[in-house]
Predict the 3D structure of the following.
Amino acid sequence: MKKYFFVVITVFAVTSNAQEFKSYGTPLNIGDKNYTAPFFNSLNQLSDYKQGKDNEKKVDGSPYINAQFTPSEIVGIPHNFNMRYNAFADEVEVEKVKGEIYALKKDPEFKTILLEQGKYKLQLVNYWISSKKEVLGYLVELKAVNEIILYRRDKMNLIAGKEAITSFDIAVAPKLVRSKDRYYLKQKEKNIVEFPENKKQLINSFPNLKDQITNFIESNPLDFDNEADLIKITVFIGSL
């Protein structure tokens, strides 16, 4: 009877652990009964540019703004990870153990990622590109004031290479380069859209604040291509 009881308890424990692992994916550490890691995708299933190649061709440059794995946090998950952001694939990469790398699934449960010990705040959001295409991806949160939020999109683009057709030609390898920073704005219950490019577009986005915005811009020479000035505008509008 005792033996039967022990078997039942063992089966129950195994079943409970299996359910826990099913809910949270791959265990972070073998034998870690108190925590299991979030949903991961194996990078081995993704493009081979991570090995420095594109269609068997060597690629210059890096897909990362910062290629180093740093102590980071997924808000709501009681554990720290070594993570980095892949700005070409738009993925957060997690180093489970040295040399074993996974990509964090884009799941609403893992919406806020604090990289580099909180210095780099990524938000998984739906945003609109040129008001025509909605994208689910990561944006860097720069400033949030009373539901007015300024984001930046960090992006690496792959520039095609050039083959040497004749002996006089010089072959050029494909190259990953950082694209121009794009900024996005969230106001309360509205969609996340590209930040206005000038005073007129800004007023059209906040028609009820036309006089205040006009006075603010006339009193403060601002550059809509300057991140520090966009933060000033966000703080001002959020304070109204």
